[in-house]
Amino acid sequence: MNIYKVACLVAHVSEKYINQKGVLYRGELIRDSKQKLMPKLFRPNNDESREKMLLRLFRERSVPHLNSVPDNYWDWMALAAHHGVPTRLLDWSWNPLVALYFAVRSDVECKWNHEENCCRVIKRVVYVYRSGDKPLLTDEDKSRKKPGPIGYRGKIRKFSPTHVTPRIAAQSGVFTIHSRQQNDYFKKQEIEKLEVIGKPSEILSQLYLLGIHEESLFPGLDGIANHINWLKCGRRDRIANIKKSRFTRSSQCPCC
Questions:
Q1: Dihedral sign, CA of 37, 41, 42, 45?
Q2: C-alpha torsion sign, points 131, 98, 106, 11
Q3: Which one of 69, 123, 128, 136 is most buried, by most CB atoms within 10 A?
Q4: Poorest-pLDDT segment among 54-63, 179-188, 244-253
Q5: What per-residue confidence (pLDDT) applies to 255?
Q6: Is the dihedral of CA 119, 245, 203, 176 positive or negative?
Q7: Please, which residues bridge with residue 191 across strands?
Q8: Model pTM?
Q9: Dihedral (C-alpha) 88, 223, 108, 244: value to the nearest 10 degrees?
C-alpha cells in the first residue's frame, strides 16, 4: 500500500482497522535497505551493555528541566527514548496522522553511502502494528522493581507512560519494550508497512489543515518557533501546496 496523500492513509485505516483493537502507528525514515524495525539500543553502533549507564546519565541531568519527575524506571525509560536516548523501547502513536507527520517531517531526500559510493534515496514509511488484545502494562506492574525495563528479557509488551511531558500526551504516545533475545522483533502478520510516495511538503500542508503540525505535537516555545518558521518560510509555496492538496486529484492515487 502506497500513501500519496493524507486521504489515502485515512481511507486505508478506516477500511481496514476501524474495528480492530490495539492498533499502533509509527512513522520512520528508512536510510538503509537493511534497516529493520527495532529499538535504537539494538541497532549497529550501539552497545546494550551501556543501557543502565545511559539511563542513569539521563536521569541525573534531566531533573532540573522537568516539571514532573517520573517515579519508576518504566516512565524514565519512556521519557529518555522520547528524547532520543538509545533504549530498548520503540515509540508509537494511537493516531495514524501523527505517525505520518514523523514520516515526512524531515526534508532530507537522500543519504550518501560511502561503501557503495552513491547517494541512496531515503524511504518514508508508516508502520502499522496490530497488537491485538495484548494487555497494556499496568501501574502496578510498573511499580514493581522486578522485572524492570533494564535488561528486559520477556515478550513484547506495550505501555502508556505517565505523561510527565506534554509532548508524549500531544503525540498520543505509547511504547513497546523488546528483548535482544528476539530474532524478529515482530511477527510478520502483526506489521503492515505503508510506503509514503507523495511529496512531503504537500502532505505537511494537508496535515496542517487537520491540526497536525510542529506546534501541536511539540507544546512549548521550541514547537511554537519551529511552526512559525514553517509558516513563514516559503509562504507562497505553502499556500500553493494547500490549494493543490485540497482541490486537485492524482491519477496515481487510488483514493481519488
A1: positive
A2: positive
A3: 128
A4: 244-253
A5: 63
A6: negative
A7: 129
A8: 0.85
A9: 130
